[in-house]
Amino acid sequence: MPFSTYAELNQQMILHFQNKEYEQALELISREGSGFPKERPLVDYWMMCSAARLDNRALVYQVAEKCLSYGLWYGEMMWRMTPSFQGLQGDTGFERIVAASLALQEKDFPPKEQVILKYLPEKISDNSPVLIALHGNQSTASSTLPFWQASLSKGYVLAAPQSSQAMFKGAYIWDNLDISFAEIKACYEALKKELGFDNRQIILAGHSMGGLIAIQMALTGDLGVRGLIANGPALPFGDAQDEFEKLLPSARERGLRIYFIIGEKDVDIEQDEVRAFAEKLKSAGIACELETVPGATHDYNPAYDAALVRALEFVNS
Questions:
Q1: Is beta strand 116-119 parallel, antiparallel or unpaired with respect to 157-161?
Q2: Which residues of 68-174 form beta strands (DSSP E)?
Q3: Rounded CA gap, 176 and 156, in Å?
Q4: Distance (Å, rounded) from C-alpha 6 to C-alpha 268?
Q5: pLDDT tens-place string over residues 263-317
Q6: For the chain, how many helices (H) and strands (E)?
Q7: Distance of alpha carbon 285 from the chain centroid
Q8: Does the CA dihedral 69-73-76-80 come out positive or negative?
């Protein structure tokens, strides 16, 4: 059966794996995967996982070598934490592939160097406000910039840190929360040392999973930021509502101001849950607004620029 979107194909692959139908999974991804060239890293990953489940190591290594030949690397967490690859750990061929992949990664981003993209407004002063913007999962600091660049026209310094948690080339995630929080704090301290700002000049922002990180850090008060802007966010505190509610009084006392932006056609988030989350914040006395942008999806839309400007005005009002 043909698939109109990669999401449909991905869902069918998940079902095959849940049912342990690995032969069907390999046949499906081999037949349909080429129809989604933009998703090639995920297609090849599924193929390797399917082959590994069938103990077809030759195919795993063949696909991996092909990936390496066109410069695609997978992060160590993908090689080490993927359940399908557990039986390959220590195998000479597998370890050679992992080493080659990590070598390519280090060429792109040397280890222990935090990637922070920084952009300055045309006019900058000691009082210039700062927007720290976090990318979503399977994204990069550079690819999230369109969501936040309108802040430059309003005199903001824009800083976009990139997570060190690599899935594959061009796809970084925030899944390990402890590591993520530590990296954002390190970014904050580096910017403060360089720019000498007061923490009340800082707004923390994030898209998708980056929104989750930004929301949680803003509510806990770790950075003492002035406000928070989240575009199409995932939400924190899913099974820890007691923890969430305990943070609300102190966030209100600090005067934290929060603005949510969601696209009318964003199907990648639970919009009703975001609205309910915003209402809880309002009920707790926290200044919070939510804007729905007509026609916009989870991806960047030029209409988000005006929404961001309104969000900045709200946080600073």
A1: antiparallel
A2: 116-119, 130-134, 157-161, 165-168, 171-173
A3: 29
A4: 14
A5: 999 999 999 999 999 999 999 999 999 999 999 999 999 999 999 999 999 999 8
A6: 11, 9
A7: 29
A8: negative
> What average pLDDT does this structure show over 92-113?
87
Q: Are strands 130-134 and 202-207 parallel, antiparallel or unpaired?
A: parallel
Strand positions, DSSP E, the chain: 116-119, 130-134, 157-161, 165-168, 171-173, 202-207, 227-231, 257-263, 287-293
Cβ atoms 295, 264 nearer than 8 A: yes
- CA dihedral angle for residue 112, residue 116, residue 117, residue 120, rounded to 10 degrees: -140
- Rounded Cα distance, 179 and 157, in Å: 24
Name the amino acid, one letter, at 236. P
The Cα–Cα gap between 24 and 12 comes to 10
- Tell me the residue type at 246: K
DSSP 297: -
110, amino acid identity: P
CA–CA separation, 274 and 298 (whole Å) = 14
Closest CA to 205 of 179, 237, 231: 231
Tokens of 107: 């060429």
For residue 43, what are the contacts with CB-CB under 8 A and spacing of at least 6? 29, 33, 34, 36
Say if CB 202 and CB 169 are below 8 A apart: no
**Paired tokens of 316:** 């600073």
C-alpha to C-alpha distance for 214 and 235, rounded to whole angstroms = 10
pLDDT, average across residues 47-53: 98
* Helix (H/G/I), strand (E/B), else coil: 74: strand
CA angle 66, 1, 50 (to 5 degrees): 35
116 beta partners: 161
| d(C-alpha 146, C-alpha 267), whole Å | 20
Q: Would you say residue 147 has pLDDT above 70?
A: yes
**Helix ranges restricted to H, 126-270:** 177-195, 209-220, 241-254
- H or E element that contains 62: helix 57-69
